[in-house]
Amino acid sequence: MGIPDIRLLVTLDFEVYGHVQGLNLTKDTRDRCTKAGITGWVKNSKQGTIVGKMQGPKEEVDKLITWLSSEGSPGCQIDRCELRNQGNLSRLDYKDFAIRF
Q1: Which residues are the signal sequence here (predicted)?
Q2: Which end of the chain has fewer surrounding CB within 10 Å, N or C?
């Protein structure tokens, strides 16, 4: 118990399903992650989803996952957001947040 460590760094992979490509979701995800101090990457998949990896402060990552799970960019119709490979980190593996192609 006690005071939660706000500096706790987490890592996770995510995949967003629904009508999500072609609506600036990758760009908006990158912009929001950069502003929140989250590192990693995002890209469109061949299966029509958006996939990526996030690393950063747990509180900020949780906010972004909530946004990706329920809201997303204007025009998105999000069915679900699946999370994989969740864990804690002692340091970040990426220096920024990028869009991959």
Answers
A1: none
A2: N
Helix, strand, or coil (residue 10) = strand
Does 4 reside within a domain?
Answer: no
Read off the pTM: 0.92
Containing domain of residue 69, as a range? 9-99
Both structure tokens of 68: 């990706």
Using CA atoms of 80, 44, 72, 74 in order, give the dihedral in degrees to the nearest 10.
Answer: -130
What is the CATH classification number for the domain harbouring 66? 3.30.70.100
Q: What is the pLDDT of residues 35-68, one digit of tens each?
A: 999 999 999 999 999 999 999 999 999 999 999 9
Q: Which two tokens stand for residue 10?
A: 């987490």
Q: What is the mean pLDDT of the chain?
A: 94
Please give the structure tokens belonging to residue 32: 């929001």
Give domain status of residue 1, yes or no.
no
Count of the separate structural domains present in the chain: 1
The edge-to-edge listing of strands for the beta sheet with 50-57 is 77-89, 9-19, 50-57, 39-44, 97-99
